[in-house]
């Protein structure tokens, strides 16, 4: 039997189109599959957010019990997207030792506690990091009177550090790779390590550079201390969720991305309603006035508009918590937008 080449091509094309249609239907069904975590959060009526209880700029309650920080605002953004209310969050204080166990067990819905994204934490602990909301690196703080200008001058020094962190591991790597000796003085909590350093128990204190600036302002005589210039590690800090719930992972991830995209597009808390009238298709997709990009997330079309209006864009969150509008006065640096010399970059909503 003779089969024409054109017939073969046509049959092949039809089969490919049919296969693509099936794949597309399966993809849509998978994207819209119910999220167990989202259902639990909605049924409970609030988001359970594990965060740092004592790191200025990232997570800490004031004397009236009002929480503030970059990580705190990320959780408020998730609550705004889900509930249209950024206050529907319960902040759970987490130690470095217990934070991942609490997430694994379901005690919290998301961990936003200046945690470093590493391979082992995902592959071995069954977690997923949903982006980087602060690019950091480990450094050292010393007293000015020691006249130390570089971390390479710390050979033989005693170093205060928190146990159970990547900080402790990086410290060992740095001294070993530079053939230097040191005395490690480890504590269960960051507060204990800082108090020990402030009392003179150690020559230096080490943690993420952002943490050094945050802790420095709380010391008895902040001006007597200096942060050394070296950054000895990569510390991409971001929120984490449990593996196995892709929709919830996407909600947390795209909350962060929405804030970055909003800053890039010039959308702020103050002008979000006005910007929603823009003819710019990128702005219209982000704010939900064109298309429905919240559906696959299990959210409303205006999910991102809620986040921006009630919490702010990434730049606003950075500025008021750790930037020029805060006590810490940390420069944007790597945390600036990619278009302004930094590496903060978000995929588009489309």
Enumerate how many helices there are, as a single number. 13
User: Helical proportion?
Assistant: 25-40%
Sheet with the most strands, sense and barrel status: 5 strands, mixed
What is the overall silhouette?
A: globular
What radius of gyration results from the CA coordinates? Answer: 24 Å
Distance between the termini: 49 Å
| Oligomeric state, counting identical vs distinct chains | single chain
Q: In which order are the strands of the major sheet placed?
A: 10-9-11-8-12
In terms of DSSP E residues, the strand content is: 15-25%
Give the topology:
Blueprint: H1 5-31, H2 36-44, E1 47-51, E2 60-61, E3 67-68, H3 70-83, E4 89-93, H4 99-105, E5 110-111, H5 119-123, E6 127-129, E7 134-136, E8 138-143, E9 157-162, H6 166-177, E10 182-187, H7 190-198, E11 204-208, H8 209-216, E12 225-227, E13 235-237, E14 240-242, H9 246-264, H10 272-275, H11 281-287, H12 303-310, H13 314-321
Parallel strand pairs: 1-4, 1-5, 9-10, 9-11
Antiparallel strand pairs: 2-3, 6-14, 7-13, 8-11, 8-12
């Amino acid at each position: 039997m003779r089969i024409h080449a054109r017939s073969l091509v046509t049959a092949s094309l039809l089969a490919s189109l049919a296969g693509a249609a099936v794949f597309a239907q399966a993809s849509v069904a998978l994207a819209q599959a119910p999220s167990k975590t989202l259902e639990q959060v909605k049924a409970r009526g609030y988001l359970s957010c594990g965060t740092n209880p004592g790191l200025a700029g990232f997570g800490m309650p004031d004397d009236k019990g009002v929480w503030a920080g970059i990580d705190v605002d990320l959780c408020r953004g998730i609550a705004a997207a889900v509930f249209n209310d950024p206050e529907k969050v319960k902040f759970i204080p987490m130690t470095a030792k217990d934070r991942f166990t609490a997430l694994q067990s379901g005690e919290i819905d998301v961990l936003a506690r200046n945690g470093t994204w590493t391979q082992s934490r995902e592959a071995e602990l069954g977690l997923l990091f949903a982006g980087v909301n602060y690019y950091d690196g480990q450094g050292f703080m010393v007293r000015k009177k020691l006249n130390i200008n570089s971390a390479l001058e710390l050979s033989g020094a005693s170093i205060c550090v928190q146990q159970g962190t990547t900080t402790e591991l990086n410290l060992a790597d740095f001294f070993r790779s530079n053939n230097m000796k040191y005395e490690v003085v480890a504590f269960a909590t960051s507060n204990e390590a800082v108090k020990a350093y402030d009392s003179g128990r150690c020559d230096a204190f080490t943690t993420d550079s952002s943490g050094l600036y945050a802790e420095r302002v709380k010391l008895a005589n902040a001006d007597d201390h200096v942060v050394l210039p070296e950054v000895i590690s990569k510390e991409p800090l971001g929120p984490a969720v449990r593996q196995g719930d892709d929709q919830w992972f996407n909600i947390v991830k795209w909350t962060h991305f929405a804030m970055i995209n909003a800053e890039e597009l010039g959308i702020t808390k103050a002008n979000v309603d006005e910007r929603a009238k823009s003819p710019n298709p990128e702005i219209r997709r982000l704010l939900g006035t064109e298309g429905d990009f919240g559906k696959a997330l299990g959210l409303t079309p205006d999910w991102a508009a809620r986040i921006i209006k009630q919490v702010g864009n990434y730049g606003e969150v950075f500025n008021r918590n750790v930037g020029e509008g805060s006590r810490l006065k940390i420069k944007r640096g790597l945390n600036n937008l990619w278009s302004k010399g930094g590496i903060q970059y978000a995929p588009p909503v489309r």
